[in-house]
C-alpha cells in the first residue's frame, strides 16, 4: 500500500532521468557552477593513474587544498564534536599476507580466511551466544535459542550465575554451529516454548517448520519426535515461522512469511499428535505484516510484528487479542506502538522491544489501544541500556526474571522481580556482567564493509557505528584490529579508499582522513546535514577516485563534486535514481551505483566523461539485492544478497554487455559452510584476498584467495 507500480517512481519523485523542480537536468552542473572539466576554486586536482584504491607504487593521490572542515588531528572538528568517539589502540601480533599475482577463482571455492567469528563451523563454545532470540522454562529447566549458532541451549536447573548450559540441541556438541534439515538439526531457529507437561517446541524458521519434542530432551543432539511443516500443511511458500507457544494443550504458531497464504497466526485448541493435523483457526488480517514472537497465558495473546499496519504504528508494532480467538480471521482487539516480546507475571506485561533501549513494563495487561499507552516510562539515563533487536523475549521462573538481549549477546537476569523498568539487572548469562557486550569483547563485527588500499585493511559497520583497522594486511584468520573507532554519530554505511585518503558516509554525514596514517588520529573532515544545497540524509554511498567525489542518498540522489568538497561547495552534477541508490565505487573511468534496498535493482554505471550528458547504463539481469558493486585490480564484482553469492567479470564492460560472470563465489545455499556466503553484502580487495561481508543474520567477513 502506498507503493507505486513496479518501474514507476515514488509519489512526488520525477520520472527516471528527469530532475526535480529546481534541479538541473541529469548530468548538468547546477546553476553558477563551472562546466565539466573545470574544478571549483581551491580544488585543482590531477587525476591519478591506475586503480582507484591503489595508485601506482602504492602512493596516494594529492588531496586538494582549502578544506574548511578541518579540525586538529586527534581533536573533534567544530561542526561535529564526536562526543561518543573513542579510539582503541592495541598491539595485535599477526602475520602479514603476501600479495598474490593470481587473479582467478574457482567457482564455488572455499573461503581461505575469515575475520569476525571463531572459525569455520565454530560457535565459540558453550557460553558464548550469537544473537540469542528466545528463552522459556517449564519451572525447572531453562531453554535458550542461540539463533546464529543454530542451537538450543538447555540448563537442567535454573542457573543462579553465569554457568555453562548442560545440553545443546541442534548440534552434536557445543563447538559447532552449522545449519541442517534433519530432526536433530536447526536452521536459524526462533522462539522456543516449554510446557508444564514436559513438551518442547522450536520454531525452525529457515526450515519452515516447528520441531516438537514430546518430552524435553535429556541428551545433547537429541532428535525431535516430529515436525509440523508449515508449507506442506497450509500450502505456503517459505512460511518462515518465527513464533511458537504452547501450554501443552493449546498451540499458537506465527507464520511470518509464505506468500499469499502466509503472514498469519495458526491456532490449535488441542495439541496435535502429528505434523499432519490442521489448525482449528487461522487468523489473517490486514494489520498483520510479518508476525514474530508470541506471548500468552492461554487466554490473552500478544504477537510482535516488525511490519504491522496497525492503528498504533505503520511498521514495528504488536497485536493483542484480549481473549482467546473463537473464529477464523478474528481481528485483534488492540495494538502496541512497538514490536515487543516478553512474559506475563501476575497480570503484568514485562517485555523488551525490538527497538529502543528501555525495558517495556505494564502493571496491568493492556487490552485496549489506550491501555497500551500506559507503560511505565523510564527517564533517559535511568536503568539498564538494553540491547534488543530482531529477537526479544523474557521469562520469569524461580523468582528470577531473565531478559534476552539479542544485540547484546547475553541474557540479563534479576534475582528477584524488580519494582519497575528503571532497575538494573544483577548479572548475565553469556557475559561477565550486564554492562559487557561479548560481541565487542570478541571483536565481532556486524554488517562489515571491507575496503583496502593494499597496505591496510578497513572494515566499517553501520550497526556498530564503528571502523576497525588493521595496519597491515592480515595473513591469518580471526586477528583483532590494531585500531577500533567507535562510535560515529552518523553510522557509516559505505567506505571509500583512495591511496591513504579514507572516507566514510552514512545517515546525515561524512567522515574523512586525507592521509590516514594508522596512529589513531580522529577524522579531520567531518561534515553533517548539508554540502552546498545537497541535503545529507539517509546516505548510502561514497566514492572518491582522486579527482571526483560522489555521495548517494536513499532519497534518490547521487551528487558529484570535482575534488573533495567543503561544506559550502555545490555539486557539479546531480543524478536522479528514483528507486534508491546505494553504495558507490569509482575507478579512473567509471562511477558505479549499487542499490538500496535493491530488490530488483539494476546496478548502474556512468563514465565520468559522460556526466554532462547523464548517460547512465544498466547492468542487466543481476538484480537480486545487489547492495555492492566494486572495481578491483582482478576484475569487477557485484553482490547478489538475495542469492547468497558474489559474481565477477573481467571488466565492467563485460557485465554491461550481458556476458555471463566468469566468477561465482558462494554455493547459493546461504549457510555458514566455508564455500557458502550468507546474505552476501559487501566486497573489498586487499591485494591478496577478496573480502566479502555478510549481512544481518551472519557476522562473518570472509576472505577468498585467487587460485590461478
Describe the overall structure.
With 708 residues, the protein is an all-beta fold. Among the domains are: 56-117 and 442-704, 7 Propeller (Methylamine Dehydrogenase, Chain H), CATH 2.130.10.10; 339-436, no CATH class. The protein is 3% helix and 34% strand. The protein contains four helices and 50 strands. The strands form 13 sheets. Strands 1-29-28-27-26 form a five-stranded antiparallel β-sheet, with no helix packed on it. A hairpin with a 4-residue loop joins strand 26 (448-452) and strand 27 (457-461). It is globular, with a radius of gyration of 26 Å. 52% of the residues are buried. Residues 1-80 have low confidence and may be disordered.
The CATH superfamily of the domain at 56-117 and 442-704 bears the name YVTN repeat-like/Quinoprotein amine dehydrogenase
Total strand segments: 50
Per DSSP, what share of the residues sits in E-state strands of 2 or more residues? 25-35%
- Supply the CATH class of the domain at 56-117 and 442-704: Mainly Beta
Tally the helices: what do you get? 4
Mean pLDDT: 89
Question: What brief labels describe this structure?
Answer:
708 residues; mainly beta; Methylamine Dehydrogenase, Chain H; five-stranded antiparallel beta sheet; four-stranded antiparallel beta sheet; 4 helices; 50 strands; 34% strand; disordered N terminus
Amino acid at each position: 500500500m502506498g507503493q507505486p507500480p513496479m518501474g514507476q517512481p515514488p509519489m512526488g519523485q520525477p520520472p527516471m532521468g528527469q530532475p526535480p523542480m529546481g534541479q538541473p537536468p541529469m548530468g548538468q552542473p547546477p546553476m553558477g557552477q563551472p562546466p565539466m572539466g573545470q574544478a571549483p576554486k581551491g580544488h585543482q586536482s590531477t587525476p591519478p593513474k591506475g586503480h582507484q584504491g591503489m595508485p601506482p607504487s602504492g602512493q596516494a593521490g594529492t588531496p586538494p587544498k582549502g578544506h574548511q572542515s578541518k579540525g586538529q588531528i586527534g581533536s573533534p572538528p567544530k561542526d561535529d564534536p564526536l562526543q561518543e568517539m573513542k579510539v582503541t589502540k592495541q598491539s595485535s601480533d599477526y602475520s602479514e599476507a603476501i600479495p598474490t599475482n593470481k587473479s582467478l577463482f574457482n567457482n564455488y571455492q572455499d573461503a581461505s580466511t575469515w575475520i569476525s567469528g571463531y572459525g569455520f563451523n565454530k560457535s565459540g563454545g558453550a557460553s558464548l551466544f550469537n544473537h540469542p532470540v528466545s528463552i522459556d522454562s517449564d519451572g525447572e529447566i531453562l531453554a535458550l535459542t542461540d539463533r546464529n549458532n543454530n542451537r538450543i541451549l538447555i540448563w537442567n536447573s535454573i542457573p543462579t550465575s553465569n554457568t555453562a548450559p548442560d545440553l545443546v540441541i541442534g548440534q552434536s556438541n557445543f563447538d559447532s554451529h552449522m545449519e541442517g534439515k534433519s530432526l536433530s538439526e536447526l536452521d536459524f531457529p526462533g522462539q522456543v516454548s516449554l510446557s508444564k507437561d514436559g513438551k518442547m517446541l522450536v520454531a525452525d524458521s529457515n526450515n519452515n517448520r516447528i520441531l516438537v519434542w514430546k518430552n524435553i530432551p535429556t541428551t545433547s543432539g537429541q532428535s525431535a519426535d516430529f515436525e509440523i511443516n508449515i508449507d506442506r500443511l497450509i500450502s505456503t511458500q517459505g512460511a518462515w515461522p518465527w513464533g511458537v507457544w504452547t501450554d501443552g494443550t493449546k498451540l499458537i504458531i506465527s507464520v511470518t512469511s509464505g506468500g499469499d497464504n502466509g503472514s498469519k497466526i495458526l491456532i490449535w485448541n488441542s495439541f496435535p499428535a502429528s505434523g499432519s493435523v490442521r489448525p482449528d483457526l487461522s487468523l489473517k488480517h490486514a494489520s498483520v505484516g510479518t508476525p514474530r514472537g508470541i506471548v500468552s497465558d492461554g487466554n490473552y495473546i500478544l504477537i510482535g510484528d516488525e511490519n504491522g499496519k496497525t492503528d498504533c504504528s505503520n511498521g514495528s508494532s504488536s497485536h493483542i487479542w484480549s481473549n482467546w480467538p473463537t473464529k477464523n480471521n478474528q481481528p485483534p482487539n488492540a495494538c502496541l506502538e512497538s514490536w515487543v516480546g516478553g512474559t506475563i507475571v501476575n497480570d503484568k506485561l514485562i517485555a523488551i522491544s525490538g527497538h529502543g533501549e528501555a525495558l517495556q513494563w505494564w502493571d496491568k495487561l493492556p487490552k485496549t489501544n489506550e491501555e497500551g499507552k500506559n507503560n511505565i516510562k523510564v527517564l533517559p539515563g535511568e536503568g539498564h541500556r538494553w540491547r534488543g533487536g530482531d529477537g526479544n523475549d523474557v521469562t520469569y521462573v524461580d523468582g528470577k526474571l531473565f531478559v534476552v538481549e539479542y544485540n547484546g549477546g547475553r541474557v540479563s537476569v534479576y534475582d528477584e522481580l524488580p519494582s519497575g523498568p528503571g532497575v538494573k539487572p544483577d548479572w548475565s548469562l553469556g557475559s561477565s556482567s550486564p554492562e559487557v557486550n561479548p560481541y565487542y569483547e570478541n571483536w565481532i563485527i556486524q554488517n562489515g564493509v571491507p575496503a583496502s588500499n593494499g597496505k591496510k585493511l578497513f572494515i566499517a559497520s553501520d550497526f556498530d557505528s564503528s571502523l576497525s583497522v588493521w595496519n597491515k594486511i592480515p595473513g591469518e584468520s580471526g586477528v583483532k584490529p590494531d585500531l577500533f573507532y567507535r562510535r560515529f554519530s552518523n553510522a557509516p554505511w559505505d567506505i571509500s579508499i583512495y591511496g591513504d585518503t579514507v572516507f566514510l558516509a552514512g545517515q546525515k554525514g561524512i567522515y574523512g582522513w586525507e592521509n590516514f596514517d594508522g596512529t589513531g588520529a580522529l577524522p579531520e573532515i567531518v561534515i553533517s546535514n548539508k554540502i552546498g544545497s545537497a541535503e545529507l540524509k539517509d546516505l548510502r554511498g561514497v566514492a572518491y577516485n582522486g579527482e571526483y567525489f560522489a555521495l548517494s542518498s536513499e532519497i534518490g540522489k547521487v551528487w558529484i563534486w570535482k575534488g573533495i568538497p567543503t561544506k559550502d561547495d555545490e555539486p557539479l552534477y546531480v543524478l536522479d535514481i528514483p528507486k534508491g541508490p546505494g553504495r558507490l565505487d569509482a575507478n579512473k573511468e567509471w562511477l558505479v551505483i549499487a542499490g538500496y534496498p535493491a530488490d530488483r535493482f539494476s546496478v548502474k554505471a556512468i563514465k565520468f566523461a559522460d556526466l554532462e550528458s547523464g548517460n547512465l547504463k544498466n547492468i542487466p539481469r543481476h538484480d537480486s539485492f545487489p547492495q555492492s558493486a566494486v572495481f578491483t585490480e582482478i576484475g569487477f564484482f557485484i553482490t547478489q544478497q538475495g542469492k547468497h553469492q558474489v559474481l565477477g567479470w573481467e571488466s565492467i564492460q563485460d557485465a554491461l554487455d550481458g556476458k555471463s560472470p566468469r566468477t561465482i563465489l558462494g554455493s547459493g545455499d546461504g549457510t555458514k559452510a566455508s564455500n557458502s556466503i550468507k546474505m552476501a553484502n559487501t566486497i573489498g580487495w586487499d591485494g591478496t584476498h577478496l573480502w566479502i561481508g555478510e549481512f544481518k543474520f551472519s557476522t562473518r567477513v570472509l576472505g577468498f584467495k585467487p587460485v590461478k
